[in-house]
Amino acid sequence: AKAGDTSPTMRGIAIQELLLCQEIPAPPADVATDDPPPDTMGRNCKEDRYAAHRQGGCAGCHALMDPVGFGLERFDQNGRYRTHDVGNPACTISGQGELGDVGAFNGPAQLADLLLKSGKVTRCLVKQLYKYAVGRSHLDKMDEQFVALFAKRLDATKGQFRFDELLLDFVSAEAFRYRREDKAAM
Q: 24-60 as b/e, with b when 16 or more CB fall inside 10 Å?
């Protein structure tokens, strides 16, 4: 939530980065990211205000984030269902969202279905698990090879895997059991 309401941009960033492992660049230093989007041409509906983000130099990144976030807008910052913008019943919320080349959705259940059917979550799941387990936020080439190996194994299961089995397989791997020496520390 930002500025007393939800932020489709922040929700979109969370989906892209945490579930799809897509890196979204930071906004330019001269952009005031904490300010709510301004009223545009007398229309004060959130979708109209956020459309300004998808213009000019900001368009590339906001096209990745905002459409995803708008698909979750029917739920406020506390998870309560709503049908219109805060304090403005004239601004109905459609709940329609879109995730790049994956497809359109309405609400979290349809988003989850799209993500699972796309298979794009699998590699990110392994990557996030690995980053958490080894305590690093950035992975090197060797780490990425390990992640790719496990993602390929999961892809072969066609989504019919159990997380506990993945975890056991993961911690049993030789690459996970031995700590690599940090050459810079030597």
A: beeeeeeeeeeeebeeeeeebbbbbbbeebeeeebee
pTM score of the predicted model: 0.80
pLDDT in tens, 136-170: 888 889 889 988 888 888 877 776 778 888 888 88
The answer to whether 62 and 69 have CB atoms below 8 angstroms apart is no
CA–CA dist 68, 15 (Å, integer): 8
The C-alpha atoms of residue 170 and residue 78 are separated, in whole angstroms, by 35
Lowest mean pLDDT among 14-18, 27-31, 134-138, 179-183: 179-183
Q: Comparing C-alpha atoms, which of 115, 138, 11 is closest to residue 72?
A: 11
